[in-house]
């Protein structure tokens, strides 16, 4: 019997167009961007070769270190929280709500489809203090606490970003992990219950190990997405106050398009690529064993 | 699958691929425009409105030949948009640019018209006020690179009624202003209306304090490298503004107050003082927005600092966020439009929007008492001084404006603020 990929010509014709488009749209710009890291200049002044200057600058730039810290802090917190809440939601759907979970699932998923900028504007108004108090500050004052300038300090602004993004995306992970939990056959639960497992023990010993493949996929998906966060932070705080909530993506955007330094901006982008690669490789290697067998 | 349908499918796939690739490429070269395209910043409502009035009135013939088309973007995105369009060769005929550095780069690439030559060619060289032209040339290395659609002096606009109600006299020195702020805060008002989101209304105060204390050349000295912003005298000025913030004179959440909100704060009577340029006269003339009435607004030049080398006759003057013209897309129709703008802009802007521009105004234009007072002051001013970021690079300007709110809220010290800005000056 001919192996499926044995017919070279058929393979080439079938994947040819897609491979061509992928190369032109994805691979060529990546290589070009890597080339830009060795130059200085922008589209108006032209590009001049500058060797490793950009990399030397990258290593000594304090702003890059701050941006990298913001990126990593955001990625870790968001991954833990959104996958964590998503998992709790999926357990809720499977064990508590059962048949009536579809309405709740839809409602919780709804923020995922909202435009990021619209959600950011919503949260900006909710946490506003000037010219008048938003919802949160009004609530704080109603219980007797003083209102907080949420966007005046890097720490509280970061908190608002996390709250906004977790609210927006936990529904997605809830649905994703719910699909993973549905795969676990009913008989496994019945036999576990007969053996005396219930509640937390059931989750820890039966559900968690059996849903590990989809959980790991969610973690990888989340880690990669959160490392590249851009529009939600830009729309909410514009990287501010100052640059205290600027991740690498916003710093790269400012450097390239605000200050007109495309070469250095490409270098920062390259750094982000390396970080994403490292995270993905790390997660893959940590879970190299075949999770479907045991 | 039959041979013909296989061939059809292959052809369809190939043509889709090619269509996709060609759609990605392209972008026009500098061919002459068919519309008089203008790119401005959203916050500037006067230029689009004035151009539209001209298109419907004095420049109707030119508009017939080449219709006007105005686009605006938020000021924080303007530079990026201009750079993007310049890189693609798609700059409109007339466009606004936010920083001197970018104008110089665009000039090197041939995207900025030299108006001394252009106006001589069009025969409208006498439609520019000499004072405006010299201010432009002092900002752009001796070259006449931008259109003076505004010619502004800056100062403190104050609410005369609130001053009288609270028993505060017109301040004569900076210490008087600070004392007045204290009185107003005790009365429950927000002494200064300032936009921390924009940042520059706060750094204007820093710049003015530097120039009042150290003399009118203090910022040129920094640009030339003879002084550093981190020198103690310069840091002291930033410290004074930080102290104002520490006393709460800018109100809460100053970093979230945008430009329009700060103007509204002044115009609805919540703040008795607003440091702003005279472009704000257009807002004062708007009866729906102006709840305190034009008669209760007074103008005070930034006052003296006791023992300082500068004095209050030296006013910060600028041409606002200027517009320039793209010579690579000029043709006879667009040149006719520009000549028409040069001859008529001053009159229309002054009458319709109370906007003082650097274009000459023929005859007597109707304007209110405040506008006339400002025009008289402009005519009487000998020395104009630059604002804080006037000679900064784009990066330093962004750093200065982004960190101004933090300076005022105390999140960073004056020393740190000046270090950040000085570090980006190179």
What can you tell me about this protein's structure?
The complex is a heterodimer of chains A (294) and B (426). Chain A is mostly helical. Chain A has two domains: 1-27, no CATH class; 61-286, MetI-like fold. Chain A is 73% helix and 3% strand. In chain A, strands 1-2 form a two-stranded antiparallel ribbon. Chain A is flat. The model of chain A has no long low-confidence stretch (mean pLDDT 89). By secondary structure, chain B is an alpha/beta fold. Chain B folds into two domains: 36-151 and 319-360, Periplasmic binding protein-like II (D-Maltodextrin-Binding Protein, domain 2, 3-Layer(aba) Sandwich); 159-317 and 390-425, Periplasmic binding protein-like II (D-Maltodextrin-Binding Protein, domain 2), CATH 3.40.190. Chain B has 18 helices and ten strands. Chain B has helices at residues 3-24, 46-56, 60-65, 75-88, 100-108, 115-122, 130-139, 160-165, 174-186, 200-214, 218-224, 232-246, 259-267, 281-284, 332-353, 369-380, 394-409, 414-425; strands at 36-41, 68-73, 94-96, 152-159, 192-193, 273-277, 297-300, 315-318, 323-325, 384-385. In chain B, the strands form two sheets. In chain B, strands 4, 5, 6, 7, 8 and 10 form a six-stranded mixed sheet that branches. The longest helix of chain B is centred in the N-terminal third of the chain and has 22 residues, at 3-24. Chain B is globular. The termini of chain B are far apart. The model of chain B is unreliable at 21-30 (pLDDT under 50). The chains are: A mainly alpha (294), B alpha/beta (426). At the A-B interface, α1 and α12 of A face α1, α4, α5, α13 and α17 of B.
